[in-house]
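User: I'm putting together a small comparison set for a docking exercise, and I want a reference complex before I start. The sequence is below, and the ligand is FE2/S2 (inorganic) cluster. Could you produce the 3D structure with the ligand included, as structure tokens?
Assistant: Of course. I'll restate your input first, then give the structure tokens for the complex.
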Amino acid sequence: MDRSPITHEMQRMMLSEPTRQRIDQEVAKYPAEQKQSAVIAALSIVQQEQGWVSPEAEKAVADHLGMPAIAVHEVVTFYNMFNTRPVGRFKLNVCTNLPCALSGGNAAAQYLSEKLGVALGETTADGVFTLQESECLGACGDAPAMLVNDRRLCSFMRPERLDALVEELRAEAARQAPNGESK
Ligand code: FES
């Protein structure tokens, strides 16, 4: 395995010019000596543009904001909206915390696991879905609850609603595939 050290220049190149410009717009919202307040926004921008936050991107963000790399790593690993490895087109986070677990959360996760043919934490071979467990989404009254791509909250996810969601997202993935190829 190549263990050559990551140089400062390689770290710098992890952030494209448009990414840097977007991050700097966030940095500008804070006093000059508090650049690190923009760390969550910066990481979100990196994830939007790269799909995940690699260790190299963490270091590049740390450099850009003048923060210790470990502090950026702590943020990335604390919030489960940040992907620490590549994920599929749709990330399905199924809540299995206690209130959801008592109302079918584990069953929903199991159902999706069998339907998609992947274990929790895995991505389907076609790259369309990543299935994950999630902590409480703040929608316990809607159990079982789940989140699609960290943005879309889905409520009362029993099998028929899970089937409809998967069908909808598969159709969307097929529409977005290059040359209309079905994924
Ligand atoms: S326990 Fe699932 S949303 Fe709160």
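Helices lie at 8-13, 17-27, 39-50, 55-65, 69-78, 98-101, 105-116, 159-176. The chain has two domains: 8-78, 90-180.
User: Thanks, that's exactly what I needed.
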